[in-house]
Amino acid sequence: MCALRAANPMRVRPTRTGGGTFAAASAYRRAVPATGDLATRVTGYVVLTLDPAVPDVAADYWMHSERFYRAVAGPVADRLGGDLAYRRLAAHPTDADAERALAARVRVLLDEDPALAEELGGRADVADDNVYINYFRGPAYAPDARNADLERLTGLADRAATRPDGRGDEVLVVVPISDRDGAGRIRNLMACLLALRDQTMPSAHYRVTVVEFDDRPRWRGRIEPLVDHYVHVTGHGLFNKSWTFNAGVRHTLGAARTLCLLDADILVDRGFLARNHARFAEHGHDAHLPHTEMLSLDAPASDHLIEERCGRGSADVPLGGARGLLLRDVPGACLWITPELYERVGGFDERYRGWGGEDEDMLYRVASAGSVLQFDDVFVHLAHRRPAMRREDGQPFNAHVPVGTWTGEQGYGGLDRPARVTGTDE
Fold first, then answer.
1. pTM of the predicted protein model
2. Sorting pLDDT into bands at 50, 70 and 90, what band is 184?
3. What value does the CA radius of gyration of the chain take, rounded to a whole number of Å?
4. Interatomic CA distance for residues 107 and 316, integer angstroms
5. Exposed/middle/buried for residue 237 (C-beta within 10 Å: 0-12, 13-18, 19+)
6. Do 165 and 313 share a domain, yes or no?
7. Alpha carbons 108 and 102: distance in angstroms, whole number
8. Which of 136, 171, 189 corresponds to the end of one domain?
């Protein structure tokens, strides 16, 4: 999949303004001060080889990137593998203090061996340009952030200002949710919704719809005060994100000029809606991905950035206190699209259930039917317990779905059940 994305068969046109290497890309640019120290970069690649969360975050990204990680980290393991600092990080790869200790040892090693420093610098440059999962830790990261749990978010929501009624004819934001056990997604959704209430775009110009997939409207009481529309679809078994998006668009579109289809775990900045809505007029396209990079935060960084954005009211999502895995060219998380193109492609393919595939499928069909751009924002993804990513037999959940074949002719977005295509549903 990474090789296909690198070849850009979907014809998504980038509008990047960043530097030539991934290390100089936007997440690093926007953290103050910037982190360009070679020892820090090299130690980051050691973390990527040691942390078991890296293969889990995106299997195809890991398969493409692993050899580049090891090209940088291998010489460090050869020289310092027996060192206490290395062994401590190997035992605790998410320990920021252990990481800093190893970075200090690597810095000494590179100062003592300029030839090794030159070699690793070259390898890191190559890796920066090729990996699809990088590592990021802002200079102000601390693992002792205030716990931004559901109780904390509920308190913030209770104090949030009410939104004036408006037609919201400029933008409709649709956010799906399924959280049967309160394992983090409802907390993340509430943070997402609080950030969407705090926007430079006048509140009368946009509306927010949340569609809950569950056997009952489990979180309606928490969600409804923060949104313009709450929709419940009776869902059992694996989450059907495609159906929830389609139901939200189909039943709450109104006269909106643009659609923002946003995952519930994304924490946006204050200018998010105004900036992305304006991009349509500036560039004349039909759809776009706002982001080139997505920073998948660890739990302490999630707590910290929720508190900064939703508790303290920061206009931005300050990356200086962040830590996580930096994913490149993620096809999901958010899609901005005109209602006309959404209707033309028949919305998302409702045959996709469980994790994976629906975003790539939608992007493939959208780019075949209209013009699609990609901008270089950094998206911040809040931590939650990861869902199962494959079936019990090891196969992807949606391997049976033929990519790019959905047309919507059979209908989409009904409230009673997902649409079906004869011969391809399981």
1. 0.89
2. confident
3. 22
4. 32
5. exposed
6. yes
7. 10
8. 136
